[in-house]
Each structure stands twice: as structure tokens, then as C-alpha cells.
Amino acid sequence: MNISEIAKLAGVSNASVSRYLNHGYLSEAKRQVIEKVIRETGYRPSIQAQILRTRKTKTIGVILPKIDSFAVGNIMVGIDSVLEKKGFQILLADSHNSPEKELEYLDTFDDQRVDGIILIATVFTSKHLTELKKSKIPVVIVGQQLTGMSCVYHDDYHAFYDMTNLILEKGCRKLGYIGALEGDKAVGQQRSQAYCDALQQAGLPEQAEHRIIADFTISSGYEKARELLQTYGPLDALICATDTIAAGALQYLKSQNIQVPQQMMVSGQGDSDISAVTAPTITTLHYFYEESGSNAANLLLDHIAHPDMPAKEMKLGYAIVENQSTK
């Protein structure tokens, strides 16, 4: 069975069948009759033949930092919702938060002729910039802003500036911040800088010293909360870079019989499942992860269809979700 035979059975042209198989424009009547014939005959197009004919693999490579992340999972839902409808397959590569593995996957995908790459990014090195610039296929970045590259990212700075102000408006005057890897521009640098700037604006610049770096784990949040309080004495609020870190901090405070929010307030980021099941529930920042994934997928498809299209940046908003840990 081939395209000509499908076209004959459906009473349409070969071109119409080709457009149907490649998700091109087709009237609904023709689409339905072709779909019926394909379903009844069990016809499956040859992938290799399609690649040779169109020079497209209908495959997108996605490089992600950690497969079991709440944020990454939701980004993938958004990516898949777009690509599946367009007939694309997804090839996943988990870097396990290793910049070296990201570089390896970028090079591998570039050589294996995927049609495009979505990079859910964390840390950019000079080698990343070189690899991205020399890529022969379109690349869209999610989660980080990089000048000259198409990217979809979140407004980390203003999100954490507003969260810090929320805590200050509730009367807290001795704050602490548990941040993340400083090499990560979004999660590390911008969130931390926003915390410092909000304190400076409030006339509390000395509080900016009350900072410590944690890993993205509950156990690290627990340990870093302990170190922060032992180093800087009693605090009345902890602002954490992620919900997971905040959950660990909450565990430590409970172990010390420090009541939240009566004696100390706690906030996180991500609006993840964990923020809703702790006791008390954690005040957090909602990011539109699924939308970032679907926007990135659509942007990548635009670049594939229009190779000369200039780079485009999309910055998404946020929402404060106030729960029990600050009320």
C-alpha cells in the first residue's frame, strides 16, 4: 500500500494524501475521507521514506536537567501537548544537572538530525554559548533568558521582589534567604538579587547578608535552615528559592519547636504539590510552567518552518499563592 493507492481509494489526489500525512492544510471533508481509508487499510507511512523526501525527521530533542522535577514535568506536558498534535516525536535527554552532559547532548542531537532542540536550561558556560551559536538546527531555551537566542522564561526577579515585600508588609524585620546555585542565572542570581534589592528599598540592607546556598532537596533545606539560624541568630522569616527547600526548612523549624507562622514565616517557589501537603501549607509563587513548554514548542515549530526567522524572547508572569505559612 502506498500514497497513490490511498489516494485512489479515497478519491483524492496524491498531493492531498501527502498534505494529510504531513499535517498540511486540507478541507475537513477530504481529511475525513483520507483518515477513513487509512484506518480501514491499516496503512502506515514509511518513516525513512518521509525523511528522505522531506529532509525532516519529525523528531524534537528535549534536553532537561532532572526528570523527576515538578517544574520539568509540567514543562514537558506543555511541550508534548503541542508536538503530539503536529505529529512530532520527542527524544528526551536527562543531563542530571550536569553542564557537561548538556553540551554532549547538544552535540549529539545536532549530529543525529533531529528537526530542532528544546533546552530546559540551568547554567550557561562559555562552551554552551559556542555550542548554541554553531548549531545547525533551531534551538529554543526554556527557563533562562539568553540574548540572541529564542527563549521562554519567567520573571524571577519581580516574583521574588514581590514575595520579599509581602513578608516585610507583615511586619517581619529579620529575614533570611535560602537560595540555589549562583551559577544559575534565574534560580540563583535573579531571585537572590531581588531579595537583596527589596531589603535595600525597605531600609534593611544589613539583612541581605543573611543568605545561604542549598541544593534542590528537602534534606539540604533542613540543613541550610539550621546553619542560617545558627549563624545569624533568631529570624522572623525564611524566604526559600524553591518549595522543596522550603519544605526542608519547615521540618527543621518543627524540630526546634519554632511555630510557623506565629514565630517565623516561610515562603517557597513553584506552587508544587509539596507546598499544599505540608503542615502548615507553604506560601509560594506560581509559575506558568505548562504554558512555557507549549510556547517553546510553538516557537520551535515556527523556527523550523521559517529558518530565517529572528530570535524571539517571551517572558511569562507569576502569581503569589498565599498559604498558611505566612498567614
Map the helices and strands.
Blueprint: H1 3-10, H2 14-21, H3 28-41, H4 47-54, E1 59-64, H5 70-83, E2 89-94, H6 99-111, E3 116-120, H7 126-134, E4 139-142, E5 150-154, H8 156-169, E6 175-179, H9 185-201, E7 211-213, H10 218-232, E8 237-240, H11 243-255, E9 265-267, H12 273-277, E10 284-287, H13 289-305, E11 313-316, E12 318-321
Parallel strand pairs: 1-2, 1-3, 3-4, 4-5, 5-11, 6-7, 6-8, 8-9
Antiparallel strand pairs: 10-12
Distance between the termini: 67 Å
General form: elongated
Mean pLDDT score:
92
Question: Which structural class fits the helix and strand makeup?
Answer: alpha/beta
The percent range for helix content is: 40-55%
**Spatial strand arrangement across the major sheet:** 2-1-3-4-5-11
* Total DSSP E strands: 12
CATH topology of the largest domain: Rossmann fold
Low-confidence stretches: none
Contiguous helical run count: 13
Strand content: 15-25%
Task: Tally the structural domains.
Answer: 3
**What is the level-2 CATH architecture name of the largest domain?**
3-Layer(aba) Sandwich
Major sheet size, sense and barrel closure: 6 strands, parallel
What integer value in Å does the Rg equal?
24 Å
**CATH homologous superfamily annotation of the largest domain:** Response regulator
CATH class of the largest domain: Alpha Beta
Write the H/E string, N to C.
HHHHEHEHEHEEHEHEHEHEHEHEE
Structure description:
The protein has 327 residues and is an alpha/beta fold. It folds into three domains: 43 residues, no CATH class; 127 residues, Rossmann fold (3-Layer(aba) Sandwich); 137 residues, Response regulator (Rossmann fold), CATH 3.40.50. 47% of the residues lie in helices and 16% in strands. It is built from 13 helices and twelve strands. The strands form three sheets. It has a six-stranded parallel beta sheet with strand order 2-1-3-4-5-11, sandwiched between helices. The protein has a four-stranded parallel beta sheet with strand order 7-6-8-9, sandwiched between helices. A two-stranded antiparallel sheet has the order 10-12. α11 links the parallel β8 and β9. The longest helix has 17 residues. It starts with a helix and ends in a 6-residue tail after the last strand. The model has no long low-confidence stretch (mean pLDDT 92).
